[in-house]
Design goal:
This protein is α/β, with parallel strands linked by helices. The protein has helices spanning about 20-35, 45-50, 70-80, 100-105, 120-130, and strands spanning about 15, 35-40, 60, 90-95, 110-115. Strands 2-1-3-4-5 form a 5-stranded parallel β-sheet, sandwiched between helices. Strand 1 (about 15), helix 1 and strand 2 form a beta-alpha-beta unit.
Length: about 130
């Protein structure tokens, strides 16, 4: 369950949805060290539950291959939620085929990064999404 208390040191809250525990742990540790609060979802169902809730997110990171709704289905559902329509969503996945990339952008993803990834480059992309073009 997300902690609703954002301390002044936090730059905002990020949702990380990935079914691989070590990837979630790496992302959470790195993002928290960078000043973000992080909520973790272990599958698409939990990601949707968090996105349907009231907690504000700066960015959502979604893996494509997750149990339950996959990341693209979560992305599509998030775009139908009025309070998430403008949420920057970044797809972070091992599925780097052009069809996956095209589908993600067609459904409204702002960015697409393939695994393995550089944490520093990921942080730069997140900061760009938060600041805007």
């Amino acid at each position: 369950m997300p902690d609703q208390d954002l301390s002044a040191s936090h730059r905002g809250r990020i949702l990380v949805a990935d079914d691989e525990p070590h990837i979630r742990r790496i992302l959470a540790t790195f993002l928290e060290a960078s000043g973000f609060a992080v909520d973790q979802a272990i599958d698409g169902t939990q990601a949707l539950e968090l996105l349907e809730g009231p907690v504000p997110y700066e960015v959502a990171l979604l893996d494509i291959m997750m149990p339950g709704p996959n990341g693209l289905e979560v992305l599509e559902a998030a775009r139908l939620l009025p309070h998430r329509a403008g949420l920057p969503i970044l797809i972070l996945t091992a599925k780097g085929q052009d069809t996956d990339r095209e589908a993600a952008f067609a459904l409204g993803a702002e960015d697409f990064i393939t695994k393995p990834f550089s944490p520093k480059k990921l942080l730069a992309r997140i900061q760009k999404l938060i600041r805007g073009p």
